Amino acid sequence: MQSQLNMAVRQKTFVAQLNTRPGFSSMPFSPERTKEIQSRIDARLRSGQANDWEMSFLTNMAERFQRYGTQTRLSKAQYASLHKVLKLEREKPAQARSATDDRTSQPAPKRSTRTVQARPRPISVTRAINAPRRAVRKAQRQIMVPLVIAVAFFALVGSLFESSNSRSTPYSPSALPTSQTANSAYVYVTGTRVNQRAGPSTSNAVMGVLSEGTRVEKLRDEGQWTQIRSNLGTGWMSSGFLSSAAPPAERPASQDRSLRASDIRIIDGDTIDVRGMTANVRLVGFNAPETWRPSCTAERQVGERATARLGQLVRGAASIEFERVACSCRPGTEGTDQCNFGRFCGSLFVDGRDVGSTLIAEGLAVPYRCGRTSCPSRPQPWCR
Questions:
Q1: Which of 231, 255, 267 is nearest to 339 (CA)?
Q2: What's the pLDDT at 234?
Q3: What is the pTM of this model?
Q4: CA distance 313 to 319
């Protein structure tokens, strides 16, 4: 017991001598710092990478820290060497450590939950001055764009309506102004089938064909051509095919009547031209092969035979009766290009029998029936 007391006295005396000896640090080591140095010294000694001097120096430091612990005192040179060998970080002073501990122990300041509103963007003077102008221009665009679209739409509808009327409404002298009708002169077509052209020359396009006896309005003469107005519109015809004298055989086209063979001209197996009518007549109830633009050679050949046979029936007939019938077209379109290519419709009876029945029986035509306002596709059994 006495020896232990003596040892403690000597230790305290040695520590006091170190504290008062010049050249030694008087700053005590913290417990954490002491443990860190001891662990690093032990790791360095165990690594086997220390040289002889470092082994001797670190062994001495290990014994000193083992003996004195936090009361270990080192000179500045020893502390610097220890710091260099172990690559220690400098320990904060006691006051700094306490201040840091105080700061970490304090609770973090609470964030304000108040919503920070963004400041409004300042408006420049120029922007404020031009704002009314921009608003006016925007309003003009919003009004003008729909207005322009509406005007264009109504203009398009009006032009289509006008074009439809001009195409679907046949020419009638009664539709002209009174002053123009009173001064108009009418002439008659003398040729069997005469072309009406768009201009006073054979190089101009053909607007259509007018049959013999058709009455047209004469507008003016230009050389050997005469400008006329017919159900085809305003066009030109050679003056040699026009006459102011009405043909003696002219009769109202709307009446059913008996005909002579000379009153009929055969166009093809189911189409004829009747004197006094302003357009060709499509015979109803049957369909004969086409001779104009046939679908095949066989159709053209049979069509020529049907045309010849119809002419033979008309020329050898003792009596010929013609009956005008309504075409199967939409109301208001008969007599225009929108109905049956501008042709009229009718039935032709030779010696009391429909010519269609004769051609069907001889294999030169096929039955063909239409509805009230439309017709089915034309049968073409000749091109099979």
A1: 231
A2: 94
A3: 0.37
A4: 11
